[in-house]
Design goal:
The structure holds 2 protein chains of 2 kinds. By secondary structure, chain A is α/β, with parallel strands linked by helices. Chain A has 14 helices and 15 strands. Classes of the chains: A alpha/beta, B mainly alpha.
Chain lengths: ~475, ~60
């Protein structure tokens, strides 16, 4: 009688919904092999991606090779890294050696393959994580929907008729859909926080200049940030700590020693002064957005309301700088390959190219004034809460929604609450409030370089059960 | 003889020529709508009074 074929399924853990920390612990303890974890992730991607359209490339052979190397190291009794065997994926604007960095575009598909991985991929893989592929995104990151004309829309795991939010749409779908426990995306005006909110997962937009953007395709250098998505605050902190560090290859990356957040994660809320953003942020949202905000505010004892001064003007200034810097980046492509753009992106960039330069300088002058005003608030408070999005996920293809009774375009306005924050590079953790039928996120905003505080609050809320990544049916949930 | 063309249409046509940007007639309405929105945002920022010695956010470091 033939012996039974060894199961590839990592039975000791619920691989579809285990966190990165749980997977790494299981691999390190020998409960499961890295090869089994990765094979299981590749199977889930093959099964679920046709429904979610999160992945645009799967690096299966690379992943199997890496997993085998981790298992070989374990067999030699070598100490494994803190992310040993954890599958992860990256928005397709990160350089992945051997793949063209398409950044959601048709145009970049003719670029030569990247020669070397992004430094953030290198750092995660040095800690034992295993890259399994590249993820769908809005063209050139100029998007809040997760829809892509060339690759099709990213679909929300909680209801595939609904959008993921963007531009890091595949990052949201892949993590919320249980394909991977960890992904990396970019956030220029909200592209980590919006999909985190609409897909019901945790996302970290670090301080501007904290994580290296080297070997990633840019959008707006003044505002571009990279950061992680996960299904737990601990996984955000763990991956964030591993990616910190100065990098001369990114001129905006701060010459600053790593400041680990993970050791501070369980310090609780004691001593923290937390307020709720009023004024601009108290208008325009749906009842769901404010119900979620109330739930979080009550849980952390945030009784005070603060007004972030001139937030509406900050959003306007961010809009101007985004469209003009984006136009400058793409000017030659607009001249010579305009027909190859998504028209929704092209028409905004052409308009951006035509904005007179004094108006852009005015926006940069205002930016410095606004930064000073907002930093004053952090003398009185350690963190400020605000909605991440004005509503739960709209349907794919939906062009407009009602904000304060006014019919408004979805694509440019899903980030009304995120833009005034990334405008001055503040660190934010987006936390998921598991409303039904669709989740929604809240921003925990901290002072520059205080990611540890935002992560600590996110973790405390998670421990209280106030925030959590809800498990959709597609990932084995109810 | 005076024409009654829209100044924004004229601006788009002139800017496209100056910047060597292609402008197909079918793109005109969307580009104009986007330009109009962006100029309104820019006006909201520009009307905010700042002192003459205000510094822009990016600082070049030699």
């Amino acid at each position: 009688m033939p012996s039974p074929r060894p199961s590839l399924r990592p039975d000791p853990i619920d691989a579809s919904w285990a966190t990165a920390s749980e997977i790494a612990a299981a691999v390190a303890s020998g409960k499961v092999s890295a090869a089994a974890v990765i094979e299981d992730a590749l199977t889930r991607i093959a099964t679920r991606n046709p429904l979610l359209n999160a992945f645009t490339a799967v690096t299966a052979e690379r992943a199997r090779t890496r997993a085998a190397a981790i298992d070989a190291a374990a067999a030699r009794k070598q100490k494994l890294g803190p992310l040993a065997g954890v599958p992860f994926a990256v928005k397709n604007l990160f350089d992945v050696a051997g793949l063209a960095t398409v950044a959601g575009s048709r145009i970049n598909r003719s670029n030569p393959p990247a020669q070397r991985d992004s430094p953030l991929i290198e750092k995660l893989e040095a800690a034992g994580a295993v890259l399994v592929g590249a993820l769908n995104m809005g063209e050139y990151a100029y998007d809040f929907t997760g829809e892509n004309l060339h690759d099709g829309p990213s679909r929300n795991p909680h209801d595939t008729a609904h959008m993921t939010g963007g531009s890091s749409g595949g990052c949201g779908g892949a993590v919320a859909g249980g394909l991977v426990p960890l992904s990396l995306g970019s956030d220029t005006n909200g592209s980590i926080r919006v999909p985190s909110s609409l897909c019901g997962i945790f996302g970290l937009k670090p301080t501007y200049g904290r994580l290296s953007r080297a070997r990633s395709f840019p959008f707006v250098s003044s505002f571009d940030h990279l950061g992680p998505f996960a299904r737990s605050a601990r996984d955000l902190a763990l991956s964030y700590d591993l990616m910190q560090g100065a990098d001369g290859d990114d001129p905006a990356c701060a010459d600053r020693a790593p400041e680990p957040a993970l050791p501070l994660l369980d310090r609780g809320l004691e001593g923290l002064r937390i307020a709720v953003a009023g004024g601009y942020f108290a208008k325009g949202g749906t009842p769901e957005a404010y119900a979620a905000l109330d739930r979080v505010a009550i849980a952390v004892g945030a009784d005070d309301e603060v007004e972030i001064p001139e937030a509406h003007r900050a959003r306007a200034a961010a809009y101007v700088i985004t469209t003009t810097e984006g136009a400058a980046l793409h000017l030659d492509r607009l001249r010579h390959q305009a027909d190859d753009f998504d028209p929704a992106v092209r028409d905004r960039l052409i308009a951006g190219a035509m904005i007179p330069s004094p108006l852009v300088v005015k926006a940069q002058l205002f930016r410095r004034w606004y930064r000073r005003q907002v930093l004053e608030l952090f003398k009185s408070y350690d963190a400020i809460l605000a909605p991440a999005t004005p509503c739960t996920a709209p349907k794919i293809g939906q062009q407009t929604f009602l904000l304060d009774g006014v019919e408004t375009l979805v694509r440019p306005n899903m980030g009304i609450y995120t833009q005034p924050i990334s405008f001055i590079g503040l660190p934010v953790v987006a936390v998921p409030v598991p409303l039904k039928p669709m989740p929604i996120g809240i921003q925990i905003i901290a002072a520059p370089w205080r990611e540890d505080i935002a992560l600590r609050i996110a973790y405390a809320l998670e421990q209280q059960g106030v925030v959590a990544a809800p498990r959709p049916a597609i990932a084995g949930g109810p | 003889m005076a024409t009654d063309s829209d100044p924004l249409d004229d601006f788009i046509a002139a800017s496209a020529r100056a910047l060597a940007l292609p402008m197909k007639p079918e793109w005109q309405a969307a580009v104009k709508a986007n330009l109009d929105v962006t100029l309104k945002h820019a006006a909201l920022v520009a009307e905010f009074e700042l002192p003459d010695d205000a510094e822009p956010a990016p600082i070049f470091t030699a």
